[in-house]
Write a structure and sequence with these properties.
This protein is of the alpha+beta class. It has two domains: about 150 residues, 3-Layer(aba) Sandwich (Aminopeptidase), CATH 3.40.630; about 160 residues, Aminopeptidase (3-Layer(aba) Sandwich), CATH 3.40.630.30. It has nine helices and 16 strands. The strands form two sheets. A 13-stranded mixed β-sheet has the order 1-2-4-5-6-7-16-8-15-14-11-10-9, with helices on both faces. It has a three-stranded antiparallel β-sheet with strand order 3-12-13. Strand 4 and strand 5 form a beta hairpin. The longest helix is centred in the first third of the chain and has 17 residues.
Length: about 350
């Protein structure tokens, strides 16, 4: 493995390696994010393997003191996604953390800068770099305002609790077969045709993505709804609860003093999530879209929240009749090297 380093004062940046797993986990545990509701991850498996294996072509960078202590980390994942109507080489910045004792020193900016440089080394100077920034996380928003050309595009992570059972329906919901994935790829791409931030599927690419997993069992599923054996709705599901959870570290005073937590937060204050992205349905099959949603909530596996990534301006939220004010999180897409049109987007998780 080629390792790149740079240093400034007492802290140097270098490429993360598998040997950093335990230290990365300790860093995340001790460095909850700074959103209005603060979370810290709890890992079921080696944190380096989780982040490096969650998305294809992922590289991590760590910030290390002279005595070998890890005090910052961030990952970057190469992909192709649509920006301003054109599919372009792109890099998603993710999983940034800086230890509280080392914040306000410009370290987060250095880690961002190193990841952007890496993306351009790998993908070319004209690549697009982007990140999902949670509203209310003032430090992350401040860093994004520094590197991003735009923070205008927004989407929602919608938390739905499990339900006891799905309403009876003639729609069949199941994991897609190889043959069904061919139809799902075509119909998902049609549903999101010309939609920015969407990563167009190929059959081989979807098959490869489903096989990617940081653990010995599948992490991703492609779930479809069929009517008379025709694929009429589908979604990409990542069962993150199998590798990690998010534990509430702190709440704002109004929630600490409230009689009940918002629906987004379980009583245990530990989010075990299945993440949904690229949700689509065929014209005239709104009922199948709702059947798919209800099936996923009624069969959550080990998850206690089903998290749907979607743009409220698009068609998905309306057909699923999603309520406002349930603790949904709003995020902005920070982007440099490209632009996002002022139209509904397809958030890339």
């Amino acid at each position: 493995m080629q390792t790149h380093t740079d240093s400034e004062g007492e802290i140097r940046l270098r490429t993360a390696t598998p040997a950093d797993g335990e230290a990365i986990g300790t860093l995340f545990t001790n460095s909850p994010d700074e959103g209005a509701v603060s979370f810290a991850p709890r890992f079921e498996y080696d944190p380096y393997e989780v982040y490096a294996g969650l998305r294809p072509e992922t590289t991590g960078f760590v910030a290390e003191t002279d005595d070998g202590r890890l005090v910052g980390v961030g990952f970057v994942s190469n992909t192709k996604a649509r920006f301003d109507g054109e599919v372009r080489p792109s890099a998603l910045l993710n999983a940034l953390a800086v230890h509280p004792d080392f914040r306000n020193r410009g370290l987060a900016k250095r880690i961002v800068e190193r990841r952007i440089a890496h993306a351009r080394e790998q993908l070319g100077e004209d690549c697009v770099v982007f990140a999902n920034i949670q509203h209310g996380n003032d430090p992350s928003e401040a860093v994004a305002a520094w590197w991003a050309d735009s923070l205008a595009a927004e989407f929602v992570m919608y938390p739905a609790p499990p339900i006891p059972a799905a309403p009876s329906t003639d729609v069949d919901v199941h994991d897609a077969s190889a043959e069904e994935r061919v139809a799902a790829v075509d119909r998902s791409n049609n549903f999101y045709a010309e939609t920015d931030v969407y990563r167009p599927y190929t059959v081989d690419g979807l098959t490869s993505r489903l096989a990617d997993s940081p653990i010995d069992e599948p992490l991703h599923r492609y779930v479809v709804a069929t009517v008379d054996d025709e694929v009429v709705a589908g979604v990409f599901a990542s069962e993150m609860h199998n590798v990690m959870s998010l534990v509430v570290d702190s709440l704002p005073p109004e929630l600490e003093d409230a009689d009940a937590l918002p629906p987004a937060i379980p009583e245990s204050k530990e989010l075990r999530m299945t993440m949904l992205s690229d949700y689509w349905y065929a014209p005239g099959h709104e009922a199948a879209a709702r059947a798919l949603w209800n099936h996923l909530r009624a069969n959550p596996g080990g998850a206690n929240r089903i998290m749907l990534n979607y743009d409220p301006r698009g068609r998905v939220g309306e057909v699923l009749d999603l309520e406002d004010g349930v603790g949904e999180m709003t995020l902005s897409v920070g982007v440099t090297g490209g632009s996002i049109r002022d139209e509904p987007i397809a958030p890339l998780f």
